[in-house]
Amino acid sequence: MQFHHNGYVSKDPREFDAAGYGIDRPSELPETMDVLIVGSGPAGVITAAQLSMFPNVNTRIIEKRPHRLQLGQADGIQSRSVETFQAFRFAHEITDEAYEITEMAFWNKDPNNPQNIVRGARPIDDEHGISEFPHLIVNQARVLDYFNEFALRGPARIQPDYGWEFIDLEVLGSEAADASGVHAPADYPVKVTLRNTEGEPRTVYAKYVVGCDGARSQVRAAIGRKLEGAQANHAWGVMDVVADTDFPDWRTKCAIHSQAGSILHIPREGGFLARIYVDLGEVPETDNRAIRNTPIEKIIEQANAIMHPYFLDVKNVAWSSVYEVGHRLVDAFHDVDDYPRVFLTGDACHTHSAKAGQGMNVSLQDGFNIGWKLGHVVDGRAPEKLLCTYHEERQPAAENLITFDREWSTLMATPLEHLPDPSEVERYYVQAEAFAAGMMTEYAENMIVADARYNALATGFPVGQRFKSHQAMRRCDANQIHIGHEHFADGRYRIYVFADAAHPTESQKVAQWAEVVQQVVRDFTPADLTMDAYFDIKVIYQQPYHDFEVVDAPPLFRPLVGTFQIPQWENVWAALPDNDVFYHRGISRDGVVVIVRPDQYVGAVLPLDQPELVRSYCEQALLKQN
Questions:
Q1: Can you spell out the DSSP letters for 98-139?
Q2: Burial 146-169 (b: 16+ CB within 10 A, else e)
Q3: pLDDT band at 432, cuts 50/70/90?
Q4: What angle do CA 49, 16, 82 make, to 5 degrees?
Q5: Would you give the end-to-end CA distance of the chain in angstroms?
Q6: For 187, how many CA atoms within 13 A lie in the half-sphere containing its CB?
Q7: What stretches of 414-523 show up as alpha helix (H) in DSSP?
Q8: What's the rounded Cα separation, in Å, for the pair 39 and 217?
């Protein structure tokens, strides 16, 4: 984290000075706004947090609850989400209070005594080293708290407007009026009807609306989109409990298959709480959702039957529910294909079981994706067509999630005797590890995802996938740091220049690249802003860090920043001889350029000796400012 460049800072450096709409932000909901976020769940708060870094974008987030969420249903945090938390500067804090999953135990029916269960394999959680970040369990409410804190500390000073319920919306054309003859204010074509806790209606107008209002989304209904898919015929009881038990893996994540059914057992944060998904069996077609009224005593009784010969004496139930697995996907993630004004995120556009631990994680990526894109468009950095890429990217990602979840849920619900092999569940879990961790999302070619013709130059950074970080040495202070951990959620593009083998003072490739790209940066950055305002550009040399100086790098990598126009020294890096990023990420020794989008996905891999290709990418993704 860097600060003091605008003057000495004695307060919490994570709190930015208010700017733009964050200065004297009105407490009352205004009549017009650039972006209205409906719902303060995971997708809503990350969208707000991202937009808090765009102070010139007037953003409001409404929530029908009168206060913050106190008990969230979601709890599984995949490593991809923790990577995202790092970009919002609270990965370490939330890891400290969370439960960390390090392995998973698989319990099956004892072949010698079928009424009992016996422990089988215990694979580690990330045996392939998918991410340096852990797999966590923590209450959703705390995740929302951290994002809300970030949003409030951002220059735009965004915080939820509680007690406002969304009723309806209408997208009006520039010349159109609603049924009552009312025209929307200029540039605010989305007319939104709200209602406060006293039942009083209110009309506001927005440029864009983001529906983050859950599986029963009213925003989705307002734009005529529908969830499509089947409701499964299998029910699960779920409970967060404090209990006395002799089950030896009580503080280990477990999948249990017994003669009496199945359990997915997940320890919770705090050392004593645990979440238990209990198989309640097939649901008859004539049930009419009566299964949802299953008393907690029955769920506990079934859990004891499945865990036999071990006992479970529940002392306290913090939360419980019964649900039927449903896999449904909305027909589109926005209102119209051309120039969309309304977007759907999270459970508003995809529903699935909770057992794969994907719901909150995928919702976060939805919000991260649409958040920076709205920021860029409204702030005048990017063309409006950028918003069309949201549906193009996130709909296939959700479809792949539902396919995975359907397979995992089916395996968990299948009686052991019907599986081809008792270890089938374990095998699937290990094989699908990378996908479950959120690391297999891959965006297809579009205006911000270049073609993969040069990907052979950096095989460890597949175009369209998340940027997989690696350690390197920051030259100025000799700190070994993951380069990707410097990726702050500030809406900037990252450009990583992996230098050729020549010494920094002799590298003509790097010097020529920097000379060309310096003009590109000027062209796509407003004249009144510093050179690092829209781009964060780093160079990583192959030589040991003691073999060169920071000042050996071209000036592009040492931009003048802040009020006092002092040089940035933290953009010059060196590969580690014993942990070489070039080797581990398959980077050509001839050099390569990797462009990373604001949401941490690789936008392009380009040869170092063709700097004009950086301009070509920017001409697609951004608007010229000069």
A1: SEEE-BEEEEEEETTEEEEEEE----BTTTT---SSPEEE--
A2: bbbbbbbbbbbbbbbbbbbbbeeb
A3: low
A4: 40
A5: 30
A6: 6
A7: 424-431, 433-436, 508-523
A8: 9
Task: Convert the pLDDT of each residue in 122-157 to its tens digit.
Answer: 988 877 778 899 999 998 999 999 999 999 999 999
Contact 358, 78 (CB under 8 A): yes
176: exposed, middle or buried (Cβ count in 10 Å: 0-12, 13-18, 19+)? exposed
Nearest to 165, CA basis, from 226, 224, 214, 225 = 214
Report residue 69's pLDDT band, with 50, 70 and 90 as the boundaries: confident
**Amino acid of residue 189:** P
Domains and CATH numbers, the chain: 20-69+139-226+329-413 (3.50.50.60), 92-137+228-327 (3.30.9.10), 455-621 (3.40.30.20)
Q: The sheet that has 99-101: what strands, in order across it?
A: 76-77, 135-137, 99-101
Is the CB of residue 53 less than 8 Å from the CB of residue 489?
A: yes
The residues with which 579 forms a beta bridge, in sequence order, are: 576
Q: Of 390, 375, 508, nearest to 449 (Cα)?
A: 390
Q: What phi and psi values does residue 524 have, to the nearest 5 degrees?
A: -105, 15
The stretches of 291-339 forming alpha helices (DSSP H) are 296-307
Answer whether the bond into residue 309 is a cis peptide, omega within 30°: yes
Please give the Cα distance from 382 to 379 (Å, whole number).
Answer: 8
Return the number of other C-beta atoms located less than 10 Å from residue 621's C-beta. 24
Radius of gyration (Cα) for the chain, nearest Å?
26
d(CA 255, CA 119): 10
DSSP-derived pairing of the beta strands 104-110 and 253-258: parallel
**Does 175 score more than 90 pLDDT?**
no
Which pTM does this prediction carry?
0.93
**Residue found by looking up tokens 């990373």 in the block:** 596
Closest CA to 334 of 391, 266, 275, 411: 391
Tokens standing for residue 135: 């797999």
C-alpha distance from residue 605 to each of 455, 459, 576, 611, 613 (Å): 6, 9, 22, 12, 10
Q: Are 613 and 373 in contact (CB under 8 A)?
A: no
Secondary structure class of 317 (helix, strand, coil)? strand
Tokens of 30: 């205004």
Q: Where are the alpha helices (DSSP H) in 480-549?
A: 508-523
Per-residue DSSP letter, 588? -
